[in-house]
Amino acid sequence: MPRFTIVVQYSGVPSSKVAAGFTAWTRTPDGALAIGEPQIAWWWYPSNDHPSDKATFDVSVSVPDGVEAISNGVQPRPPVRETLGYTRWSWRSLKPQATYLTFLTVGQYDVTTDTTADGSTVYNAYSQLLTPDFRDAAKASVERTAEITDWESTVFGPFPFEARGGVVTPPGTLGFALENQTRPNYSSAFFRRGSNTSVVVHENAHQWFGDSVSVRNWQNIWLNEGFASYAEWLWSEKNDEGTAQEIFDYLYATYPDDAAIWTTAPADPGTAELFGDAVYDRGAMTLHQLRLAVGDDDFFTILRTWTAEHKYGNATTEEFTALAEKISGQDLDALFQAWLYTPSKPVLAASLAAPVAPKSWAQISQTHTLLHEH
């Protein structure tokens, strides 16, 4: 097949462009944020903006001296001073990456760096506009990224990328967290009540579920969000703050029967509920029901096999359910039909009394609320 290069030159002011009633490019007091899902890439660079068309990326940005320009992956070279008071920052993603997972954060940031045992670069950045209490809580959480991803590696398989880390953006500029490949960005509001490891667990679980294994179409989004939400449950379980079963029981009992979580099918939520409760919480509940049906050994084998077989690729709900049946040797059609495809509340074998929220629920619900603002 012949190879060719396309060069596109253009200019403009991204923050001045409006589509579908909003602007994805965000201006901040000290810079800008190019962060969003599912739409952000075409606000700042030409692309086939679909998760099934991945590429490797080099991002080179010239910004005024005194501000940082942060993107995905590693820095192939240190920042270089240019003429007229500008500095050029360069970043490189070494593995296939979906367009919406490519981000750019520009502003004044305090940066910490480290290297993990496997050689991964850890690059964390905190807006200098954060108040001291928010900054301390953010650091107490995001600085645990290497620890959290090391634990997630024992559950989901080897960490799939060359770098790790996180960015905490200026107050009031971002209303969600996003799992940008190798380096999630977090709204400072996640740390308004103190440290919050749940959101760090959630966004970094996406490095496996969403970033490495990406959806083939957006209707499969529960494969990203349900899995990342269930990672929070597993983290709670690991830290004796409430078992996955307790969290399941609490959610099942407290959502009203007519809530959107039950009237939306997670496997095809539609545009209005693309990031709704059915995708996040019912997606996680589906995984818990699968775990109960097949047992822990097969369940965690399914997760690790899924991330290995579809590494750096794209996948569908049908492929996941087929894999679950193959590994477990069970017919799971009824389970998946009830939890993924039926727009009504699944019936459990035994009714639940109203349970008490697990100890971790205050933190998980804070994460849940902000994520759903996305």
From TrEMBL:
Family: Belongs to the peptidase M1 family.
Keyword Hydrolase part of the UniProt annotation: yes
Signal peptide boundaries: none
UniProt xrefs under PANTHER family: AMINOPEPTIDASE N (PTHR11533:SF297), PROTEASE M1 ZINC METALLOPROTEASE (PTHR11533)
CDD domains with a match to the protein in the record: M1_APN_like
Record's keyword terms, sorted: Hydrolase, Metal-binding, Metalloprotease, Protease, Zinc
Domain Peptidase M1 membrane alanine aminopeptidase: 192-339
This enzyme's EC code(s): 3.4.11.2
The keyword Zinc appears for this protein: yes
Cofactor: Zn(2+)
Protein name: Aminopeptidase N
Catalytic reactions on record: Release of an N-terminal amino acid, Xaa-|-Yaa- from a peptide, amide or arylamide. Xaa is preferably Ala, but may be most amino acids including Pro (slow action). When a terminal hydrophobic residue is followed by a prolyl residue, the two may be released as an intact Xaa-Pro dipeptide
One family name in Pfam for this protein: Peptidase_M1
